[in-house]
Design brief:
- The structure is a single chain.
- Helix content is about 35%, strand content about 15%.
- The chain has about 350 residues and is of the alpha/beta class.
- It has two domains: about 120 residues, Aspartate Aminotransferase, domain 1, CATH 3.90.1150; about 220 residues, 3-Layer(aba) Sandwich (Aspartate Aminotransferase, domain 2).
- α4 crosses α5 and α9 runs parallel beside α11.
- The termini are far apart.
- Bound molecules: pyridoxal-5'-phosphate.
- The site of pyridoxal-5'-phosphate has 13 residues, from α4.
Length: about 350
């Protein structure tokens, strides 16, 4: 605690990201993609004219927004881009949730949302998941200060169909419904087609997971023009250039390669389901997942102990030390070889 900190900073409990280890470990702790970015990404980096770095980038990121808009089937004016979807989410909280009414969210969801609530002084109303650990869409009130959740949800992995989201949107019409689709490409159903009929729907996405570009920091939001304008107002009061020109060129190159995108996501899905079977054989309970991770629980073995045992064997997974998740491990899907190593390392720990 420093006397120089403003009172608000003293009260913050910042988000703690998954460890980025210095030593060589099999890294299954932050839901990165185990496959390289599209080959066009390397070409874009090689061919990028260095002299362009002298200039500020386009503050409106037109070219990147157009590329995303083409990809998801909306107008460029319905797309907002930011330095990772974390930044887009942070700006969205400021733009739409900073008022006296409480923001509704599931009690188990992406743990950055409560951090934003504390940062911006937003009151959080946490609602329990249903008995199968799905986001309980019916629990969200018709009237509130807004709704936020990840779909598929993190770290539980379950994803609702678009029709269920449409039903929620037919009820909640007076506040913003923010759906974080960081993992939707691994088997979720995107709500983006609903944006045209629902001016209060904002959907966020990221290049970090299915596009293998976590290090680049590119995220986006899709919504009505009025919501995008709200985000732009906050962004232009904070940082006019969150997307550098290199990131923009790389992002556009990544979007252009559909074959690579499909091949990588199919590989992740296949490996996920194969890993599920093998973990179940070892006695784990594995939650259904439409993401690039599995949330698992062993009825007889302490999760913290498994976490340590795996780390000693060179494998890093995620253990959340919270009441609800203490008995679980979240395991990102790596390559087939990495998942073989995981299962091999778990075998002696589970017998
Ligand atoms: C649910 C969810 N949303 C958003 C993010 C942030 O992604 P990024 O800032 O890399 O785009 C993550 C990262 O793990 C996540 O799990």
């Amino acid at each position: 605690m420093s006397k120089f900190w403003s009172p608000k900073v003293r009260e913050l409990t910042p988000y703690v990201p998954g460890e980025q280890p210095r030593e060589r470990l099999i890294k299954l702790n932050t839901n990165e993609n185990p496959y390289p970015p599209a080959p066009g990404v390397e070409a874009a980096l090689r061919e990028f004219p260095v002299d362009h770095l002298r200039r500020y980038p386009d503050p409106e990121s037109r070219a990147l927004r157009e590329a995303i808009a083409r990809e998801v089937g909306v107008e460029p004016e319905q797309v907002f881009v930011g330095n990772g979807s974390d930044e887009v989410l942070a700006l969205a909280f400021q733009a739409f949730f900073c008022h006296d009414r409480p923001l509704e969210m599931p009690d188990i969801t992406y743990s950055f949302y409560p951090v934003y609530c504390r940062l911006y002084g937003v009151t959080r109303h946490a609602l329990p998941l249903d008995e199968q650990w799905r986001v309980d869409l019916e629990a969200f009130a018709k009237e509130s200060g807004g709704v936020v959740f990840a779909n598929p949800n993190a770290p539980t992995g379950h994803g609702h169909e678009r029709q269920a989201i449409a039903t929620l949107l037919s009820r909640v019409t007076d506040s913003v419904v923010l759906i974080d689709e960081a993992y939707a490409d691994f088997g979720g159903e995107s709500a983006i087609p609903l944006v045209s009929d629902h001016p209060n729907l904002l959907v966020t996405g990221t290049f970090s997971k299915s596009r293998s570009l976590a290090g680049l920091r590119l995220g986006y939001a899709v919504g009505s023009r009025e919501l995008i304008e709200g985000l732009e107002r906050v962004k232009d009061s904070f940082n006019s250039y969150p997307i550098d020109s290199l990131a923009s060129a790389v992002g556009i190159a990544a979007l252009a390669d559909h074959d690579h995108f499909e091949a990588c996501r199919e590989a992740v899905i296949t490996t996920r389901e194969r890993t599920r079977g093998r973990l179940e054989e070892l006695g784990f309970r594995v939650l259904p997942s439409r993401t690039n991770f599995l949330l698992v629980h062993h009825p007889d073995i302490d999760a913290a102990q498994l976490f340590v045992g795996l780390r000693e064997r060179g494998i890093l997974v995620r253990h959340f030390n919270t009441d609800a998740l203490r008995d679980y491990l979240r395991i990102s899907i790596g390559t087939e070889d990495e998942m073989d190593s995981l299962v091999e390392a778990l075998e002696p720990l589970c017998t």
